[in-house]
Amino acid sequence: MVQTLKPEVAVVLDRALAAEDITAEEATLLFGTTGPEYNATILVADELRRRTVGDIATYVVNRNINFTNVCIKRCGFCAFSRDFREEEGYYLPIEEIVRRAQEAWDYGATEVCIQAGLPPQMEGDLYIRLCAAIKEALPDMHIHGFSPEEVLYGSIRSRCSIREYLEGLKAAGVGSLPGTSAEVLDQEMRDRISPGRITVDQWVEVITTAHDLGIPTTSTVMFGHRETADQLANHMALLRGLQQDTGGITEFVPLSFVHTEAPMFLKNLLPNVRPGPTGMDVVKMHAIARIMLNNWIPNIQASWVKEGSRMSQLLLTAGVNDLGGTLINESSPLLPGRSTVSSCDRRNSGG
C-alpha cells in the first residue's frame, strides 16, 4: 500500500488485497479511518469488487407486498407497525395479495417479496397458504418471503418446530428468505432497541435451518443508531462464520437507520440515538463489508430505498455490486420513516 498510510491500516488493507480474511478487530480499525486511510479503504473495496464480481451491477425486477402493518411487537426503530385497534392498521386478504403479485408479473417482475407485521391471533398456516395461492396463480414467480422473525412467529402459532415450518414454506413455494430482523446481532443491543424481538440465537437457528433445507437467504445489518464499530464488525464476523458453514447467504445488505419517525429517536425512548449515519458512514459501511466478506459473500448490496439513487451510484465505486430490486411499490416494517416508495426506473438503476 501507499507508504503515507498509517502502518496498522496499511497492513490490514494489504492483507485484504492478498485475499486474506481480515479479523473483526481489523474491521473495527477500518471503521475508525479518516483522510488518506478512509480513501484507501474505499479503493481497496472497489478493487476487491472488481476482482470478484467484475463491473456489472445487478438488480431484480420485483414488488414488495407488505400485507399488514398490524404487529404485536413495538420495536424502537420501526415506524411501520400499528396496534390492531388503530385506524391506520390494515390487513390485505390473500386474494388482494395474489392480485398485486399478478399485477407485478404483468409489469415485468420476476419476484415478489412478502413481509409484514406480526398480527395477533394469526392463523399459523397463513404464510403457507399465502405462498401456495401465489404459486397457484403464478408458478414461475419467485417468492422471497418471510423474515426470521416471521418464521419464528409462524412456527409458534402453528405449534411446530422452526424446521417443520420452513419445510412447509418451501413446499408451498418459498424460494428464498430475507435475512432481515437482524438489526445488529448483539443481544445486549437488541434488548435495548427491540426488547422481545427474535434473539440472536433464534435468528441464527432460522437462517441455518433454512440453508440446511436448501432455502437460500440474504443477510442484513441496520446501522447508524446506537451501535458501535465493534458490534458491526462482530455482526459481520458472525455472518461470515455462518456462510463458511452453510454457503447459503446470497448477499449482504447494510440498511441505514432512518430516524425521522423512529420511536426510539422521535420520542427519546433511548439515550444517545444518532439521527442515522452520515454519508461517510454509509460509504465506509459498504466498503468494509466488501473487504471483510469478499471471500465468502460476493454480493454486497446497496439499498437505493435507504440511500437514494445518487448515493447508491457512488457506492458502486466503494465495493457494492448489487442494487436489490426495482420495487414497484412498498411499505415496509424495516424502513422506519419511509412508509411508501415508488419504483426505481431501470434506466436509473443501470438497466
Automatic annotation (TrEMBL):
<dbReference type="InterPro" id="IPR020050">
    <property type="entry name" value="FO_synthase_su2"/>
</dbReference>
<feature type="binding site">
    <location>
        <position position="71"/>
    </location>
    <ligand>
        <name>[4Fe-4S] cluster</name>
    </ligand>
</feature>
<dbReference type="InterPro" id="IPR034405">
    <property type="entry name" value="F420"/>
</dbReference>
<keyword id="KW-0808">Transferase</keyword>
<dbReference type="InterPro" id="IPR007197">
    <property type="entry name" value="rSAM"/>
</dbReference>
<dbReference type="GO" id="GO:0046872">
    <property type="term" value="F:metal ion binding"/>
</dbReference>
<keyword id="KW-0479">Metal-binding</keyword>
<dbReference type="InterPro" id="IPR058240">
    <property type="entry name" value="rSAM_sf"/>
</dbReference>
<dbReference type="GO" id="GO:0141093">
    <property type="term" value="F:5-amino-6-(D-ribitylamino)uracil--L-tyrosine 4-hydroxyphenyl transferase activity"/>
</dbReference>
<feature type="binding site">
    <location>
        <position position="78"/>
    </location>
    <ligand>
        <name>[4Fe-4S] cluster</name>
    </ligand>
</feature>
<keyword id="KW-0004">4Fe-4S</keyword>
<dbReference type="Pfam" id="PF19288">
    <property type="entry name" value="CofH_C"/>
</dbReference>
<dbReference type="InterPro" id="IPR013785">
    <property type="entry name" value="Aldolase_TIM"/>
</dbReference>
<dbReference type="GO" id="GO:0044689">
    <property type="term" value="F:7,8-didemethyl-8-hydroxy-5-deazariboflavin synthase activity"/>
</dbReference>
<dbReference type="Pfam" id="PF04055">
    <property type="entry name" value="Radical_SAM"/>
</dbReference>
<protein>
    <recommendedName>
        <fullName>5-amino-6-(D-ribitylamino)uracil--L-tyrosine 4-hydroxyphenyl transferase</fullName>
        <ecNumber>2.5.1.147</ecNumber>
    </recommendedName>
</protein>
<keyword id="KW-0411">Iron-sulfur</keyword>
<comment type="pathway">
    <text>Cofactor biosynthesis; coenzyme F0 biosynthesis.</text>
</comment>
<feature type="domain" description="Radical SAM core">
    <location>
        <begin position="57"/>
        <end position="298"/>
    </location>
</feature>
<keyword id="KW-0949">S-adenosyl-L-methionine</keyword>
<dbReference type="GO" id="GO:0051539">
    <property type="term" value="F:4 iron, 4 sulfur cluster binding"/>
</dbReference>
<dbReference type="InterPro" id="IPR019940">
    <property type="entry name" value="CofH_family"/>
</dbReference>
<dbReference type="InterPro" id="IPR006638">
    <property type="entry name" value="Elp3/MiaA/NifB-like_rSAM"/>
</dbReference>
<feature type="binding site">
    <location>
        <position position="75"/>
    </location>
    <ligand>
        <name>[4Fe-4S] cluster</name>
    </ligand>
</feature>
<dbReference type="InterPro" id="IPR045567">
    <property type="entry name" value="CofH/MnqC-like_C"/>
</dbReference>
<keyword id="KW-0408">Iron</keyword>
